[in-house]
Amino acid sequence: MIRVLVTDDEPHIRAGIRMILSSADDIDVVAEAANGREAVELARTRRVDVVLLDIQMPVMDGLTALAELHRTVPDARVLILTTFGEQQNVLRALTGGSAGFLLKDSAPAELMRAVRAAAAGDAYLSPGATRHVVDSLASGQSAHLAEQARRRLETLTGRELEVLALLGEGLSNADAGQRIHMSEATVKTYVSRILAKLDCENRVQAALLARDAGLGT
C-alpha cells in the first residue's frame, strides 16, 4: 500500500482528495495536515510514502515545508498541489526536490497516477502545470537575454544609446535624425560606430539587441 499524507489548509479540498485516493486499492490516506508544520510532524511519525503539499498555507507554507521534509524525511516523496498563476513557486519547488506537481482540480485518474509515479520514484508533472512551467522558463530565458543585452550596451555613450533606441523602433537614418534633430549623415556615423562597438553585422542585429535590452520601452 502507498501511504499518503494530504496537506491543505482548506478542509473541503483535503476531503475531496481523500475520497478520490481512498477509492484506489493500492493507496491509503493515513493522515491529513492543515499547514506545513503539521505535515512535517506527521510525515516524521506516520511513515508516509507520498506527501501531497499545498503551497499557500498558514503557519508554514509549502515551500518551507518541502525544504524541511527533504531534510528530515528524505524518503518521503512530495507532490506539490498548485493552482494556475503560481509558475515561480513551481520552479522553486522543482529545484527544492519535489517529485512533481498537480493542479488542485486535476481529474481523479491523474491524481492517482501522480501518487503512484511518485511512490515508484518517478517525477510527475501535470499537463496543466507543464504549460505554466514552460511559460515561466521562457520568461526566465527572456530575462537572461535582456541582462546579456544590457551588458553589451554598457560600452555605448548616452547619445549612442539614444540612436540605438531609434534603431530598435525601426526608424531609418533620416527619420531618426528628424526625431533627435541630427543630420542623416551624422546618424549614419553614429550607426556605424554603434555596430562596431556591439560587434553587430548590420542595423537589424543592433535593433534586435536594443529590443532585447528593453531600450526605449
From TrEMBL:
Name the SUPFAM superfamilies on file. Answer: C-terminal effector domain of the bipartite response regulators, CheY-like
Q: Which residues carry this modification: 4-aspartylphosphate?
A: 54
Q: Which residues form the HTH luxR-type domain?
A: 149-214
Look up the coiled coil feature and give its residue ranges. Answer: none
Keyword line: DNA-binding, Phosphoprotein, Transcription, Transcription regulation
InterPro entries the UniProt entry points to = CheY-like_superfamily, NreC/VraR/RcsB-like_REC, Sig_transdc_resp-reg_C-effctor, Sig_transdc_resp-reg_receiver, Tscrpt_reg_LuxR_C, WalR-like
Give the domain of life: Bacteria
Concerning Pfam families, the annotation shows:
GerE (PF00196), Response_reg (PF00072)
* GO molecular function per UniProt: DNA binding
Query: Where is the Response regulatory domain positioned along the sequence?
Result: 3-119
State the protein's name: DNA-binding response regulator
